[in-house]
Amino acid sequence: MKTAVYFCNCGSNISEKINPEIVENTVKMNNPGIVFKSYGFLCSEEGKEFLKKDIEDSGVNALVISACSPRDHEKTFMNVLTSAGLNPYMMQMINVREQVAWVTEDKDRAAEKAINYINAAISRVNLQEPLENKEIDVSPNAVVVGAGPAGLKTALSLAEAGRKVTIVEKSPFIGGLPVRYEEIFPNMECGPCMLEPIMGDALHGNSSENIEFLTLSEIDGVVGSYGNFTVKIKRSPRYVDIEKCIGCAECIEPCPVSSGNPFNCGINKRKAVDFSFVGALPNVPYINAEDCIRLNNKFKNGDVLCRSCIDACPVGEDVFKFDEKEEILERNVGSIILATGSDLYDCAKIPSLGYGKISDVYNSMEFERILASNGPTEGKIKTSGGKEPRSFAIVHCVGSLDENHKEYCSGICCEYAFKFNHIIRNKIPSATIYHLYKEMVIPGKENAGLYKHAAEDSNTYFIRINDINGITVKEEGDKKFFYIDGAEKISVDAVILCPASVPGKDTGKLAGILETSLDKNGFFEELHSRTDAGRSKIKGIYVAGSCHSPMDIKEAMSEGIGATGYVLSGLVQGKKLSIDPITAVVDSEKCSGCKVCISVCPYKAISFNEEKEISIINELLCQGCGTCAAACPSAVIKANGFTNEEIFAEIHAILA
Amino acid sequence: MQNSFFIKKKENSNADAFNSGTKKSCETVSFEPKIIGFLCNWCSYAGADKAGTAQKPYPPNVSVIRVMCSGRIDPQFILDAFQKGADGVMVLACHPGDCHYKEGNYRAVQRYRLLLKLLKQFGIEAERCRFDYVSAGEGDRFVSVINETVKAVKKLGPLKR
Ligand code: FES
Q1: pLDDT reported for residue A360
Q2: Which portions of chain A are predicted below pLDDT 70?
Q3: Residues 6+ positions from A597 with CB-CB distance below 8 Å
């Protein structure tokens, strides 16, 4: 090994404090045979040219560069090594400027320290091995889980960039929650209309052939890693052929069975064959297998199988596929985007509010459906007694900012509470409305308008509460009464609860399948809550929208674009993925199979080979932190670039 | 201008440490401890660079070994440093929750706590082995951690072996 030290004077930044000649003499004396060169500005164009030429001419194969912080110029010099035909990892850079020259008052001691560092770097670099970037083939395509605002935006943007996308949606329709809202804050747009262009483009637009929609589907398993995931998708039967059905709804009326419609929160009924709600896309009904008497082999008339829907269908018998079975599909993709959305906190967990027990106490989703013209009451606000309510209580912060429930503020409830205020006021001009709130949160440049309407309205009252448990709702006749802290008694006809946003109910199950982590509130955990909030802890799995933090539609859409950016920049069509060699490697001969490394890896990059009983590190997932190498009781994990031998050599040389 | 300390000495440190230990009163005045500082690349090493750019002077006793994460620091490195002549060892990490690799600093602090128990068995004072957090912005804090550690180790005198 021929080793050379290049000492950058950094103009006079270094040489003013540390005399290069003294360093040269001592280093040469300490390390016989060493090549030592000093230069004015090694990072300048001339400096790099000098370095390149010198490497080529002198035939050195390991370099110590004594200069500024490696955080500044390590990459610069690695590139010079590469251009001179040397492996870029055959270099050790020491930080004589920031960490010696600029901070050491005594010149002799500064020189001593620099020499010490150079000696340590020489003994280390002599142990270093060439490391190679590996390249692997990857799929540029993606699976998006969830067809709400974030998922649709991601899928459409990726499709427009030429990527193939499979959207996996567990419900029978796309659009997520907003398609069930009549109007959306802050500008009172119609929810379905706002999403219509995006859904339309995704279903029928120029790039729609790049998007595959799988409704009634969920993720069943995932193997592989970034760039090469194989995703198993379980698709439940719809029993109606999406391609053939024309969406005329003729089959619905004759269907003899019905049950509570889950997409209207059970407020009304749906037939066994029916749309989720009017206007749901794709515009094809689905058959609820639990209710359908034909599917359950129940006979309606004597022994004749029920065929009410079939007979009513103007297209033909083969629109219905009663023999359709659950299917497992597989897709090979490079990235997975989670956009599974959120749910509402269960208001029954605060029993004094009477939710689920007292009539006309609604959660916000139920009230959205009541307000919706395609909802169970076709947009008419009526009490369970069928009368128009004269007074409402809208309770904010249900389960939010509350250490017994959810500690956070969801940041959207106040806004839709004032939207409710606005809609109620339009529909029932004389209604009295009470807002009970703990904190008022209406951030954003557009969002104060609805609050202002409410605040200026003479028949809207604001009552600040300390504790949601201080509110008791009681029913006397068809009136509801509010007791606040046991005293104040207010009578209302309907109560609307605005609960905290919580993770969707399948979040935990999905996290288990994907082996991605959840935060303490059960949302998908981000790689970094500020700088990488769009990435999960698993490389190649991204999070967008309210599945990782409560947010409004605007943010969810932006996050969809964010996820698109990650996919497009991370996996470029036709380009191989290069893997940084600073990873850890298990010595398969010596691994005892204790699995300690698996338990400490923050990236789930280590798996256990049951057959050979050894740990194996996936170099694609490994980020090179070295925690496993420090934990390995047999010291058989090599942390590339920072091996035990290299670090021991540094320690010994420093202390020599 | 060839000072003796510029020459790599093989067997000096143990002898020095022994001498200074026996002649404590006169030696401690000029005693310059050797301290190894293991710094993670993302926060504490950057914090040290910050002190450098701000040109904040501090004693040169701490020799820095850069690792990607404090989680990389095998307790063996620390034991080895003490064995080979260090009078003190520092481990500097990202603040809790800030580790570039999420949780390496939690592993590091767990290992450190265990190691302290072991060091006690070896008769190495806890003050000789410091664990602390320095962020990329905390140049001043880096300097004060160095100053404090150097002072503490100076007060203890050379590590007797
Ligand atoms: S990167 Fe700083 S402690 Fe892990």
Answers
A1: 93
A2: 298-303
A3: A586, A606, A615, A617, A628, A631, A632, A637
CA distance A70 to chain B (A): 10
Tell me the backbone φ, ψ of residue B125, rounded to 5 degrees: -65, 145
DSSP A60-108: --EEEEEES-HHHHHHHHHHHHHHTTS-TTSEEEEEHIIIIITT---HH
| Site to substitute for ligand 1 among B69, B107, B133, most atoms within 8 A of C-beta | B69
CATH architecture of the region A3-125? 3-Layer(aba) Sandwich (3.40)
Pick the CATH number of A134-236+326-341+504-574 from 3.40.50.150, 3.30.70.20, 3.30.2130.10, 3.50.50.60: 3.50.50.60
- In whole angstroms, what is the distance from residue B92 CA to residue A161 CA? 45
Report pLDDT for A486.
72
Whether the predicted model's global pTM rises above the 0.80 cut: no
CA of B44, closest atom in ligand 1: 2
Q: What is the CA radius of gyration of chain A?
A: 33
pLDDT in tens, B50-97: 999 999 999 999 999 999 999 999 999 999 999 999 999 999 999 998
CATH class for the region spanning A344-503? alpha beta
> pLDDT value at position B117?
95
CATH of B27-156, one of 1.10.490, 1.20.120, 2.60.40, 3.40.50: 3.40.50
